[in-house]
Every structure is written in structure tokens, then in C-alpha cells.
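Tutorial sheet, problem 5. The four components below are modelled jointly, 276 residues in total.
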Amino acid sequence: MISKKCTYALRAVLALARNHGGSPLTIHQIAKAEEIPPRFLEAILRDLKQSGLTDSIRGKDGGYRLCVPPSELSIGEVVRVVEGPWFPSEEENKQDVFLKVWQEADSTLKAVLDQKDFQTLVSEQDALRTDNIINYSI
Amino acid sequence: MISKKCTYALRAVLALARNHGGSPLTIHQIAKAEEIPPRFLEAILRDLKQSGLTDSIRGKDGGYRLCVPPSELSIGEVVRVVEGPWFPSEEENKQDVFLKVWQEADSTLKAVLDQKDFQTLVSEQDALRTDNIINYSI
DNA sequence: TACTATCTCTATTGATTTAGTAGGGTTTGT
DNA sequence: ACAAACCCTACTAAATCAATAGAGATAGTA
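Model answer (C-alpha cells):
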């Protein structure tokens, strides 16, 4: 199963995407908004930074920002930073009949996860939220 | 990453598929042929039996057999017995923007893994093996 | 019946990974 | 100087994974 760390990373990036263009978000802002343990989030954001997806500003008024516009960042790119590989690869398993299936599964999965970008996700989340308001108000 | 247990299960089922129609294979035969720790394989075969994919005969001349013809058994069916779910599902995560992506990833993955049956795998393994013999003999 | 080869069940162990915490640092704006 | 932020290394507790142990049940056969 996909790890909690991965779902935290995705939620954090979604928050950064929503904020894109504004002033940087601090670890504590994101942690509070997304209900992620702050010290854990700190480690996750460091990983994302090392991968080049985010950058950070230290000191007062610092925080994290996306390096890439949300429309050019996919779920797959975030997942691959946080989650290791899901299927055995050629190096480990030469001459394995299952290898081709693993490769196909891997590339199919990549295609699905690379398909949706964070700009779209922000819109979809907005739609979900207004749906909710409507439902409550009935 | 896909578990060792899962790769053991697949190799065991492949051995049973290759043997389909013959006399049952014992845990020790499969364990030796596929280099799987026998007591671990025992537990795996029990899971497969409880799921209805294999059945077993106790006592002398006993062992395990496939319940289904190899041509009607897919990799996906075996993987699903051994591996839990890979993505969060609706029950846990209502109102999550990522949910639809997880559902799509799940069904795409299912399609890939359900595509290849064990009869085909046995043939492909035979082909791999004869390729090897040719390569060595050059 | 006794024997042996087989599967069956529950429990336990050791290693690894996951999830999270602690305690220091360093940088920057005021 | 101070406070607000990020940065780094290490640690711990819980869960899961991989494997093992020991005792039992079943079935064929001499």
C-alpha cells in the first residue's frame, strides 16, 4: 500500500500549488492546514527540495515554494520522489518470465500518475468543496 | 515494492501450472525447484488454497494442484490473494481529490496483471530456457 | 496396527521498514 | 541581539515482512 508519507507529500504539494505565486508557506502553516505531523513534514519537504520540486527560503518570512508551475507538475513526479520502485527491475531479475509484466505494469502506472497535474487537482478540489457547501445548505 | 511472498507465490503457481494434469506436487518439490524456504512456502500455499486457487491432498502421494486450468488463471488473481490493496479506497477517503486517481491506477494495474495467464507464462518460460541453451552453445 | 509421508495450524523470532520525535544547528529580517 | 524560519543527524516505537518451530491431522501401505 502507498505510504502515509506519500499521501502527506501529495497534500503538501497540493497546498503549495494552491498558494503558487503567493508568499512562501511555512512548514507549520502546511502542517496545520493539512493535519500532518510538523517534524515529519519537515523531512518530507526536505526530500522534495533535494529532488528539485520545491525550494525554500530560510529565516524570517521564509518557507517553501514550488519550483515548477502547478500545471507542469504531475502526481507521478511527486510519488516517485517519495515512494521507491513498485516492481522488480531488470538488474535484479534477468531471465525472469515475470519481468516483462512488471515492466508493463510499471509503465502503465507511470502513465496514469503522470496524467494529472496539480493545477487540475486544485480546480477539482475547489469543485469538491463547493459541492459540499451546496449539499450542506440543502 | 512487491513482496518476496508474492514472487514466491507466483513461482509456485507457475510450477503447478507447468505440472497441471500430472500428479500433485509436494511443498518440498516446489520449494527445491524454485528455491523457496519450505516452511514459508507452506504458509503461502495455504493462503492460495483458502482462496480457492489450489487444492491439496494429504498423506502419502499428496501435494498441491491447481484448481483452475492454467489458461484461465492470471497473474493478477494470484497477486491479489497475496498482496493487499495498493491504493486507498473510497471507504477510507471520502472527499479526497486523489481518490479518482487511485481508482484509475488500481483498475489500470488490474487490467495489466489480469492480461497474462499461466499457460502463456509456461510457454514463455520454455522459450527463455531454449534461448539460453542456444546462447551457451555458441 | 504401526509407520511414514504428507498437509495443517498456531505461535514465535529476527530483520526491516514506517511513522514520528528530539535536539541540536544555521540563516535571515528587524 | 532576537526571533522566526529552515537544516541536519540521530533516535525510538510500532508495524510489517520473512522465516522458523513444534505439535497435530490425514492417508496410503506393509
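Marking note: Strands of chain B lie at 54-57, 63-66. Full credit if you identified this.
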